[in-house]
User: Which sequence fits this backbone?
């Protein structure tokens, strides 16, 4: 039995969950998410608790059991509290700033890079610490937008310049040695 799949998902106050077969819709103060899950798992709700059970012990059903529970939990947490990722801009002359709701990145190119937030995503920039905060209610979308922004100028291993996650550790290389 999946240790993650067995755990129930408690529904906080202010969150509405609607289950129709394999289709789950979660609505809360931050937004609304809907997802259809694959065959082989059954989602049920009673007394403010969602439980996920699988039909059989086949390999695919065992794999879907824990994943389905984790996705439902992410939906409930997302619409109630939301998710965020923090990126850090490192490098001389590298900076990020807001232009309306868009993010402008000055990261060594001949032009600034403009990033428009998708629906449900918001950006915040702290110019003192040079950090970019990406916030939203869909965990997958927040992670994908953060990865796309990091891809604009990934950190390089010699000086560490570029855009990295706040908790990311860059493995540094020694570089060239001088003549003796």
Assistant:
């Amino acid at each position: 039995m999946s240790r993650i799949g067995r755990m129930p998902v408690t529904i906080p106050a202010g969150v509405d969950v609607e289950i129709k077969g394999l289709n789950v819709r979660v609505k809360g103060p931050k937004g609304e998410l809907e997802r259809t899950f694959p065959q082989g798992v059954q989602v049920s709700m009673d007394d403010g608790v969602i439980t996920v059970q699988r039909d059989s012990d086949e390999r695919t059903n065992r794999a879907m059991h824990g994943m389905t529970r984790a996705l439902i939990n992410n939906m409930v947490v997302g619409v109630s509290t939301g998710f965020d990722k923090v990126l850090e801009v490192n490098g001389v002359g590298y900076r990020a700033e807001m232009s309306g709701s868009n993010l402008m990145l000055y990261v060594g190119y001949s032009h600034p890079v403009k990033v428009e937030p998708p629906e449900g995503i918001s950006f915040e920039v702290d110019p003192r610490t040079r950090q970019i905060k990406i916030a939203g209610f869909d965990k997958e979308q927040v992670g994908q937008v953060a990865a796309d922004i990091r891809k604009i100028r990934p950190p390089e291993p010699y000086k560490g310049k570029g855009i990295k996650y706040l908790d990311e550790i860059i493995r540094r290389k020694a570089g060239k040695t001088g003549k003796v």
Remarks:
- Residues 59-80 form the longest helix (22 residues).
- The domain at 3-80 is CATH 3.90.930.12 (Outer Surface Protein A; domain 3).
- The chain is about 20% helix and 35% strand.
- The chain has two domains: 3-80, 83-165.
